[in-house]
Amino acid sequence: MAVLRNIDEQLTEEFKKLPIDYWDFEGEDTKELTHGLHNYPAVMVYPIYRNIIDIVKRHGEVETFLDPFMGSGTGLVEGKLAGFNKVYGTDLNPLAVLLSKVKTTVLKEDSVDIQDKLLRENIEQAFVSSKQLLDNIDNYIAEKGLDVSAKDGWGSDAHVILREYLDTYNSGLKIPDFKNMGYWFKPRVILELQLIKDIILQIENEDFRNFFLVCFSETARYVSNTRNGEFKLFRIKKEKVADFNPDVKIEFYKYLDRNIEKIKDFDKRCNNDCEVSVAFEDTRILDSVPDNSIDLMITSPPYGDSKTTVAYGQFSRPSLWWLDLELMDIEELNQVDNNLLGGKKVDKDFECELSSRTLEKAIKEIKEKDLDRARDVYSFYEDLDKAMESITKKMRHNSYQFWVVGNRTVKEVKLLTNEIISELGEKYGLVEVYDIPRNIPNKVMPSRNSPTNETGKTVSTMTNEHIVVLRKDRE
Question: Which residues belong to the signal peptide in this entry (predicted)?
């Protein structure tokens, strides 16, 4: 393993030469290769990773890469394409773990075609043999006088109602049982999803089974009664539910067709032996990553706690209800957001004890307006500080960390996370090398939010980020 050099001057000189809009990547296709396999909220676009990696590699020898808030695996894909010896990624969202594994797994084109053909043949056969079962379900629900748009009745008791229906056909179809299943999915949709899922689960090869489950996951989200384009879990309007009749099989084939092209393209582009480690793990712990082993870290942590920013767990639930990923039981799936940074509030009598003057000033101002919101904010930064400590233990001397962060506003107080990150890092031996501002034209976020939580009072959400460059200066 090569000794890492201090390349602060080289990096700073190169960053200064770049045009101000260099890091915007407006209009660029950010869904190429496996990056476009599955939708995911607040994804950092791959050109940021790719360009940082290229720049650092031009000036220093780097062999190991880490993205401790990997999300759907964008950074891991870029790390594998770049040919690192070892790439590590962690996340506490089971859906993120599945997506990251699939996106970084090379599937050979010939094998993909064979598995695809077999899968479709089995699905077609299952739908033909279940035609009567599928065609009669809506009449069965109507004859019972059930309203498929109601939360009570069909909405709350869908599993019991469908089990009784399936028994009349002596069907062995095993449907899932999660709270208010009928509120989020219509009767025929549930049956068709389960038919496809059962066929996928029969596939022995884990890599292909997971790939098809990712296609299934996107389908389950699309054919659910959830509102498209939302991170948080909202259902379409009650009056629209009756007329919402998606063709599950057709939608699944659409995602399958798209993703097969992407996985084939990835196979053509990825011709190295990079080893990827994907772990379902808390970034504040990072036991899956050896100490003093990482040369380069690039990540984009959450902007704040999931409750008030991006609800990754809520976004993932329509998929996780169906996927049986074993990392969590069905009840724990609803608690994903509580496990992320800032998910658990500090006590009401807390004091700001983190080593950041910028944060201390902001917390004091928010406290004067709303103690409860101050607790939310401080809880997030307290957890972020723990994450920085654990991450830095994994980094080698003269390794570099690139933190892509946004500065949100709470109670009309600007939280300068780029400055807070630098200040928190000082006690862990990190020195700031550079701070790069960038616009975020491609990042999917709500255009407005309510920082005061007052009805009708909104402000525009952030439209820019900072790429904070830190170097580990001491052990």
Answer: none
